[in-house]
User: What shape does this take?
Amino acid sequence: MTSPTLSIIVPSYNHCQYLCERLFSIYAQSCPDFELIILDDGSSDGSVDLIKELLKGKRYTFIVNTKNSGSPFSQWEKGLRLAKGKYVWIAESDDSCSPAFVSSILPYLENGTVALAYTRTSSIDKEGFKISDAFWPEQFNKFFFSETQIISSRRFLNVFLPARNCIPNVSSVIFSIEAVKWDAIKAAQLAARFKFVGDWIFWAYLLKAYKKEKILYLSSPLCLHRDHDSSTRVVLNRQAEGHRIRECSDAIHRILRLQGIYSPLTVLRALSFGWWNWLYEFYLSRYKPLTIELMAVYPLGGVHLFGFWIHGLRRLVKSC
Assistant: This one.
């Protein structure tokens, strides 16, 4: 039996109300040569029965956990181990996409132009109505993300990922796995240690494995991310938000270390141009620090937060 072109991995957990749209969006793609791997992580909302009903008569692999793993990235790892395709699409069960999603980016992978391709994402609400066209990476580089780009994976890793997660939605990505399968599995294992930034960590280590390969950013908004009460982007309690900020700080340090040296040039550029000011804004708006924590420049160890002050000083000097 020949291997499929595309492995579509659908991690699912208590997303019963979105499964019909998700699965319909997958079968609406013009890619007949794919395998479907669905991983239910102990859902209690009837998802398992619904999936079986929706896919009756179709070929697919269905793995059901009797107990929730506690991490979607553990499901990523399991799906990557099972995948037999040349390329992988991790299609989150609460997201959706345009029927043109796969056909718009798969040719770039097939002709060897790139090893990873992803599209712009728009946000939708629980009912599927568009909320916003705002795209998180534009806060770092609006010019770059305003049009379709091909860039080396090394440059993307060294310049874009230390600043923030510029691949913010896994459902918008299709990536080559043939030469880096075990690297991808190890990256997913590492990602599973994190609650909030696992995808950021995963992309960094995957791009490191790609070495001199290129990646594609397609500016057409072909992917739809679902914003709802269970999304990891929702503001939680102070304890959880403190955990989120510490993980963001840890992610930045890990990605800088991936560059072989601690990259003082990258750090100086980041501090000078205020790359990481968003983390300080997270700290103020999401965690709502106490006075004593403000004085300590929480979180400890996040030395890049000093960039907020250096950037402000730089602007002040320029205005004089």
About this structure: The chain is about 40% helix and 20% strand.
